[in-house]
Amino acid sequence: MSKFKKKTKAETSIPTSALPDIIFMLLFFFMVTTVLRDQEILVEQKIPQATQLQKLQKKSLISYLFIGKPKNTSLYGSEPRVQANDVLVTAPDIVQWVNQERDKLPEADRGMITISMKVDKDVKMGPISDVQTELRNADARRVLYASTGKIYED
Amino acid sequence: MARSKGRGSQEVNAGSMADIAFLLLIFFLVTTTMASDKGILNILPPKLDPNVPPPDIQKNERNIYTILINANDDLLVEGEYRRSPDGLDKEIKEFVLNFGAPTEKGVALYNTLPATVQAQALRRPESSDDPTEAVVSIKTNRGTSYELFLEVFDLAKKAYFEIYGERVGLTAEEYRKLTGDDDATQALLDRGKENLPMAISIAEPDKIGGN
């Protein structure tokens, strides 16, 4: 018994004085990377995967369109809908929305407006082609099919 | 004098600092969403003028690599049925780099390519004449799933990026990551795709079987 007791007398406590610093470091990392959602997503968003992803240089040129099945099916039905800003729109409204988004950009960048289409996996090509037709009408022809990375097995 | 006054308790109790920081940390951990602005870039064709009839483009059938996807997500690639798009990237690459009967522009392009890319020219008479003529055409149906379309489009892009990369001695991955921020990388980017446009045509979906 006494033998064991003697052993435990050794210094066992881990110094925790640097703990706040580590926590602060993590805290700052998350504070910097965090983006507070300014809009509520009303449609389902399961983003598909792809391998050939490109990143855009200028984030300010991107406007987002969300396409998917509405989360609240009792209110909006179960057919895929398009969300621009924080409302669900129909295809003919897209031209007006694009013009509004374009007006927010500085004049020199207006031709380079890019629409990031965040499309749910389960959507069919029909609604997407309708949206693309409207984008062509609005002359916003740079489209980014948002997708997440996939590990490619060769 | 003043010193003796301040002797009482000069240090602020910092023991609970970690707890406060933890609280904030957990708040940001929960609310954070990693910004992801990655995706596959596509340039849509310009709007058609209703007064001008669509241009009648004469192209040899052998210069078009047709991929049809129907509402059941079956593929018809160059008239051949298949269930999955696996391996399409390699076939598209072979098709683009075929150099079956190069035109004047094609010969000039061929001479600028490094030997490793030149060696990939199969020179099949039934495949594309040269990369400046070759077009990859993807046609979907309104009922085709977006996921499969994106996968096929992704593979077509992959084929082109691999060609661009090999031209400047990089892998497709490295080429794609070039940002063009400075002159050196911009020059690499330009050299990769010089005279070799990424010709991926996305036809308007047809109406049968869709919703």
Spatial strand order of the main sheet of chain A: 5-4-3-6-7
How much strand of chain A? Answer: 15-25%
Largest interface: A-B, 54 and 52 residues
N- and C-termini, Cα separation of chain A:
62 Å
Output the number of helix runs of chain B.
8
SSE run of chain B: HHEEEEHHHEHHHE
Instruction: Assess the beta-strand content of chain B as a share of residues.
Output: 15-25%
Look at the structure and give the mean pLDDT of chain A. 83
Short overview:
Chain A is of the alpha/beta class.
Structure write-up:
The complex is a heterodimer of chains A (154) and B (211). Chain A has 154 residues and is an alpha/beta fold. Helices cover 32% and strands 20% of the residues of chain A. Chain A has five helices and eight strands, in the order ααβββαββαβαββ. The longest helix of chain A has 15 residues, at 19-33. Chain A starts with a helix and ends in a 5-residue tail after the last strand. The model of chain A has no long low-confidence stretch (mean pLDDT 83). In chain B, helix 3 packs across helix 6. Chain B has a five-stranded mixed β-sheet, covered by helices on one side. Chain B is elongated. In chain B, strand 3 (75-77) and strand 4 (80-82) form a beta hairpin. Classes of the chains: A alpha/beta (154), B alpha/beta (211). Strand 7 (142-146) of chain A pairs antiparallel with strand 1 of chain B, so a sheet runs across the interface.
